[in-house]
Amino acid sequence: MASRLLSSQGRIVCYLPxxxxxxxxxRSFSAYQNDNTRSYYSEDSSNTDFPTVWPDKSLxxxxxxxxxxxxxxxxxxxxxxxxLTQKARNAxxxxxxxxxxxxxxxxxxxxxLNHVFNTVESMEQQYCSDKTALSPSDILECTAEECPxxxxxxxxxxxxxxxxxxxxxxxxxxxxxxxxxxxSWSEAVALEREELLASFVQGAGEICEALRAAGFWADFIxxxxxxxxxxxxxxxxxxxxxxxxxxxxxxxxxLGCCKVIRHHLWGTHAYVGCLFTNAPVDHPVLLAMQKT
Length: 292
Known about the structure:
The structure is a single chain. By secondary structure, the chain is α+β, with helices and mostly antiparallel strands. The protein has a domain of 200 residues. It contains 6 helices and 8 strands. Helix 1 runs parallel beside helix 5.
């Protein structure tokens, strides 16, 4: 099975022979658990530097004292509170040298434009390399990228039960190369679209199941209705010819009688579907796509 991964900041692109290969990658990490879990412990008094001194009833307050409990009534201060107090003292007067070197508005605009130009140039180079390096068996492109803030606002009505404006929100697009040109309509085109629809719904459902098993939220758009397949009912839709797909790197062509989506490699010989999850792009459950 051939696969190839291209990664950039906040974006992963993988080429595979079919949708089952993508599902296999996600299923292999469905039981993934984050090792960076919190651990809670209680401090054992036997590990302290000071020995335990029990009060002497005969001597009363004149007896030996436990240095850990110097206050009346054998009360001592918490080491946790001591650490917080020390941190508060250290951060009482924070001085940041960045305040002296803040960018001017014009400098900020220039840096943003340079970043945009560099990003577009790198994407163009990446797309050009794709055309020459792809294997004939690579007929599926799976892209995972952090959803832009502007697109999040446009998609907020699709998921009324979730706050997608903050936190991790990743969009996964699955583009399958088709045998027929999607600009025309025939029995062969209709049959191929029905087969691709059934394949995508089944595969996307399994991918969402794997992501949920890994502890994340996930849902996908049903291409036949344009609505989330697992989420609450909504009046908003996202069909494959929606203009919002432009923000994901696709082109939407208006043919007069209809619209069609254009892929950067396969043109109008493409069938596109998308999934959404709160798994970050750099999580192993998504990076697993690079493994063969």
